[in-house]
């Protein structure tokens, strides 16, 4: 019994196209987020993870009042890398619209709560981590300067 059930799910899996499988692998990994985290920590920036803030930011810098999202190119509809899967096109385009709408609402709520929101594409970290990190670091530094001026 258990054996046939396992067989069934395996065949369901193989029905996914190759590119769908690839995307799953890429989006399930938190690699770019980890890269960013490690680099920022090494630079001495202390952050919090898993806050209960709207949209669940990947990183939160409470003192600078900055939250950072590292957005997956597929799930958040990167203009360069998003391409709709060939199968279940309707489902995926609805899903994407939903995700983008959710991101927008989170940004609005966060800025109303006076958080500065930084969104970075996963591919930005992958292609030029230093540039992505320095964007975050400069925003934090600017915020400190602004606070000190108050
Ligand atoms: Zn991208």
What does this structure look like?
- With 150 residues, the protein is mainly alpha-helical.
- The protein has a single domain (29-149), classed as VSR Endonuclease (Endonuclease, Chain A, 3-Layer(aba) Sandwich).
- The chain has helices spanning 2-14, 18-28, 31-42, 89-112, 122-127, 129-149; strands spanning 59-61, 66-71, 116-121.
- Strands 1-2-3 form a 3-stranded mixed sheet, sandwiched between helices.
- It binds zinc ion.
Shape summary: globular
**For the terminal residues, how far apart are their CA atoms?**
69 Å
Largest pleated sheet: 3 strands, mixed
**Regarding CATH, which class?**
Alpha Beta
- Cα gyration radius (Å): 19 Å
Structure, briefly:
By secondary structure, the chain is mainly α.
Give the SSE map:
Blueprint: H1 2-14, H2 18-28, H3 31-42, E1 59-61, E2 66-71, H4 89-112, E3 116-121, H5 122-127, H6 129-149
Parallel strand pairs: 2-3
Antiparallel strand pairs: 1-2
Helix pairs in contact: 3-6
The structure holds zinc ion.
Keywords:
150 residues; mainly alpha; globular; Endonuclease, Chain A; binds zinc ion; three-stranded mixed sheet
């Amino acid at each position: 019994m258990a054996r046939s059930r396992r067989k069934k799910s395996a065949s369901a899996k193989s029905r996914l196209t190759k590119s769908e499988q690839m995307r799953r692998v890429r989006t399930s990994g938190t690699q770019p987020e980890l890269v960013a985290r490690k680099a920022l920590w090494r630079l001495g920036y202390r952050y919090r993870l898993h806050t209960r803030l709207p949209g669940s930011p990947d990183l939160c810098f409470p003192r600078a009042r900055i939250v950072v999202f590292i957005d997956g190119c597929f799930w958040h509809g990167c203009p360069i890398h998003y391409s709709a899967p060939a199968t279940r096109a309707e489902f995926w385009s609805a899903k994407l619209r939903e995700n983008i709408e959710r991101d927008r609402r989170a940004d609005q709520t966060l800025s109303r709560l006076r958080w500065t929101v930084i969104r970075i594409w996963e591919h930005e970290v992958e292609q030029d981590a230093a540039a992505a990190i320095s964007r975050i670091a400069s925003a934090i530094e600017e915020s400190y300067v602004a606070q000190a001026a108050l």
